[in-house]
Amino acid sequence: MVLMSQRESIVAPPAGYSTQIARLADLESSLGLAIRGKPDVVRLSLVCLLARGHLLIEDVPGVGKTTLAQSLARSVNCRFHRLQFTSDMLPSDVLGVTIYNVQAGAFEFKPGPIFANFLLADEINRTTPKTQSALLEAMQEYQVTLEGETQGLPAPFIVIATQNPIEYEGTFPLPEAQLDRFFVRLSIGYPTPEEEDEILRQRSERRRDLVDLHAVVSPETFLAMRAAVEEVYVDPDVRRYIVDLVARTRQHRQVVVGASPRASIALLKLAKAWAAIQGRAFVVPDDVKCFLQPVLAHRIVLDPALWDVKTSDKAVIEEVVRLVPVPVLPQA
After folding, report:
1. Is the torsion defined by CA of 203, 206, 210, 212 positive or negative?
2. Which of 58, 240, 248, 273 has the CB geometry, 3.0–4.6 Å to 51, for a possible disulfide?
């Protein structure tokens, strides 16, 4: 346990921290104009991006998955590419291709849609595993390797993927290695009748489908905000709390594949980003709890032999939370 005097000096915000974090409210407000009635979804998406993570949005058609992705890119004034995945796509359709230029007498590389700051992989489960795998290196190492040559991707680089969970015709379920690359999986959900009425009212007033969103921060400012998040302090007891939670998923009697260390890293980074949005320069255990479901649910594999028990990944994670003691931190 860190002593009180030590912790007070450690959690003091670094120079410039408040200035960068203050811009988060502006980003939230901008995104709220496009995604009405879903403040939790907006905030979770923003936290994921600040934590240098990729986002998987799994929901039925028409609830705003694509709108959310486009709004995130427009608010940060970044280069945005939308790629509609289909069963006949090839990896070269994502990464790019090298062609021979007759006039120049040399081969030239034509970059694909992946060379953007925000890549919307729309209906990612409609393409084959071969094409899905084209994103693996990019999502983990922020680079792509083509014909033996490695090329870096622009910063920031973020993949926002969507998929429809109720359609199985002509789809290819994401493999575990692909799912593990996504920091967070979330669902937007249907709006309430009141929220849907507000959506219709605003659509009638603006007389067009798209919401006018202007850039709130530049890419450079967004990267500075990410750097500020990295300065958030994590107590050793909170760090061990994350480790114990993830380790417990590997020991659960109804889980055949538990969460990997990549899940621990995701929880750490998301908790730091969440603490920053709350205006704190240190993480508390509740910051970790906020992300257990969206981080762990798509990373654990339940035992198929226990299908008759009707246990869900949500119930397993809730049990894990109950079993792991919560650390008590000293008052700062």
Report:
1. negative
2. 273
Question: In whole angstroms, how large is the CA radius of gyration of the chain?
Answer: 21
Average pLDDT, the chain: 84
Q: Where do the CATH 1.10.8.80 domains begin and end in the chain?
A: 232-326
Contact 143, 137 (CB under 8 A): yes
Strands 96-101 and 106-111, sheet pairing: antiparallel
Question: In DSSP terms, which residues pair with 149 in a beta bridge?
Answer: 146
Q: pLDDT for 180-225, tens place per residue?
A: 999 999 888 888 898 889 888 888 888 887 777 777 888 888 888 8
**Alpha-carbon distance 122 to 102, whole Å?**
35
CATH architecture of 15-231: 3-Layer(aba) Sandwich (3.40)
- CATH 3.40.50.300-classified regions of the chain: 15-231
What's the pLDDT at 265?
95
The confidence score (pLDDT) of residue 145 equals: 87
DSSP letter for each residue of 216-229: -S-HHHHHHHHHHH
pTM of the predicted protein model: 0.86
Q: Which two tokens stand for residue 68?
A: 């959310």
Residue 64 CA to residue 254 CA, distance in Å, equals: 34
More confident residue, 101 or 291: 291
